[in-house]
Request: fold
Amino acid sequence: MRYLDFERPIEELDRIIQQQLDYAQKTGLDMEGEIDALRRRRHQLVRDIFYSLTPYQRIQLARHPDRPYCPDYIRLMMTDFVELHGDRLYGDDPAIIGGFATIEDRTVMVVGHLKGRDTEENIKRNFGMPNPEGFRKALRLMELAERFKKPILCFIDSAGAYPGIGAEERGQAEAIARNLMRMARLKTPVIVTVTGEGGSGGALAIGVGDRVLLLQNAYYAVCTPEACAAILFKDRAKASAAVSSMKITADDLLQLGVVDEVVAEPIGGAHQDWRETADNLREAILSNLEELEKVPVDQLVAARYSKFRAIGEFEEPRRKPVPFRNPSRASKVPPEADSETTFSAAAC
Amino acid sequence: MSWFRKPPRYTEINRPVKKTEIPDGLWMRCEKCDEMVFRKEWEDNLKVCPKCGLYSVMSARERIASLVDPGSFSEKDAGLASVDPLKFEGYADSLAKNRKKTGEKEAIICGEAALSGCKIQIGAFDFNFMAGSMGSAVGEKVTRALERGGEQRQPVVIVSAGGGGARMHEGMLSLYQMAKTSAAVARLKELSVPFISVLTHPTMGGVAASFASLGDVIVAEPKALVGFAGPRVIEQTIGQRLPDDFQTSEFLLEHGMIDRIVPRKELRPTLSLLVQHLSN
Ligand SMILES: [Zn+2]
Reply:
């Protein structure tokens, strides 16, 4: 277990509990009472810390190195996972993983970012920051799922797309754009969950879904707080000041209509109890999936269009200013133009 | 994701041409070649230095005027403008300043026009308005232009100069404009209505990583800076200087990311020809 700065008091208590346990074991004394009392104190301490977190401390929780990652959710929520590799164009990006799995008797396609937990794995996974081939692999797998009518579950946890020379040479912008365009029209249910960091275009590139869920301490932002601080205050170290301006934590995102549902984490954060986190998320995903599976596929795609179409706040004279609407609730299906007729010169 | 606080130093084009001390501004000194240039000649040359070929930024209205049949442009969604949904520090002031500076309400101008007699939907970014960044209002205007193209079966041309990418000041609402505009392109493609994307200096971040990279045909002006991550961000990440031509139109052409590089003067006939080919 690793501890963040504001988790130091918990670390201290964990150390004392461990000492007592060791002592009890060594001496054979019955210390249940004392240890129980310490555990209750720990529980209260975690609670106290958790309920007074600043927005920036929650960002740190979202980045906690002991947080469950995509493979952990797969293992804790699903069975029969078969990982699939490669974009069939250039390579296989370890910063995004994907493959078939079974959840509650149905096959789904899982696609998710993957960071490393230590330096070695982070180098292998490029800190969970995909190159174009990662996004293209994700799209290949999603199109495969569409063809075989399998629902898609996306797990977002990335600081962003990788800013590198090779990434630009191979069309980072095009890869992200194509995913957004194709995901908007996939003829199968898509459920997106932001499990940790939702960083910018690299997150959104696997984030266009019928439902967007967010774990309680995850964040979703147009740029990282550090990048925002660099621009706002010319100082990356002022990220904590930037966070409150950015409106990137659960309640704000729900209010903006950017996410549809916030999934509760255990007291103290997802890393305190993986099992409980995975159970909560599994339940949320399944209930959404069951709803989506009942919707005819063209209606599903049309509603997905409306959902993203409705996002944005602006003013316009003559018409009234567009008020906030939660797109998931206002899932009106717009008339789609008849795609049979094709464009012709007669229009000129 | 505002990549540009100051003009990027990686390409030589588009730096504003300095006015000289000559009061009536008939003559100007080109910043690149330092030659004296007759302003009228420079304007007739679409803000490209007649001596050295330096490209300067065109406003959205200048751009549209340079591309469509004279008098054919009719603006749509003119009053649509950004609000400050997050009450983001400094955004309201910034909007006010940029409106005053450019005389425009937003970073894109859209409308209907004719191109060699063919009706089109056109949109042009104004880089001088908050670095051509895309917030809710820009995203909505782009989406409406694409949707009008679909409804009226008219080709859509969007000239991007979206150096600011997704507008940081509107947070996630800006990021989602990428998904919204890309979804609108998807529907246009299903209808087989042509979408031509013109990339001009600079087009980065969330604008490049959405509709601008999704044209049926993508053309770019010479030496324009186009890419996803800002050059400074990449240099900081990899810890080395980038090659001079990195993320230029020429670089994109070489890597297969765009169809053609088209000089400013040839943009209008090229677009006209493309629209004809796509319509027949
Ligand atoms: Zn010159």
